Fold this protein.
Amino acid sequence: NAGVTQTPKFQVLKTGQSMTLQCAQDMNHNSMYWYRQDPGMGLRLIYYSASEGTTDKGEVPNGYNVSRLNKREFSLRLESAAPSQTSVYFCASSPTVRGTEAFFGQGTRLTVV
Amino acid sequence: DAKTTQPNSMESNEEEPVHLPCNHSTISGTDYIHWYRQLPSQGPEYVIHGLTSNVNNRMASLAIAEDRKSSTLILHRATLRDAAVYYCIRIQGAQKLVFGQGTRLTINP
């Protein structure tokens, strides 16, 4: 049972390059989330998708775009990477109903030079 | 956004109980309280959640105050593997997990 799978696990980008972080879950969850975590800090919500076909901004959406491709997949795109986007990115999923647990991927460590 | 307040850090000894407090004084009647923890170099993992009543599972217990303005996560017998950052999260409206800074728990051998 894979749970939440993120690819890639590590990535180095040059300033101005673009890339897409992939996330897939096999638990038939409706809700999916993208977070970033800077060194020594807590997680900050970038975007979330309450259900297939919907996306909403979180706390720190600037510089990012998302696509809920289908129920399984939720991708995060950096159109023009900046050093300030160096961080560890986590994807998570949960059933729609409130009061249920969320499952997290292992993270993507992104460095922008 | 829904705010909770937790101590920045706590320390305990192995095999002793640990009580991690969380204040959520502006909670409304339908808000759930969730606890997650993050072990070093890993993604967060779910610990427990509750609405009004105290809850127990294999990992921990959650004690919710009668007025629901605070809660306490209880680890009954801490081990070194319980050293982590513990996050108390209040969920309101659409299920949107917003993390605070959490409590860094250190367990002494």
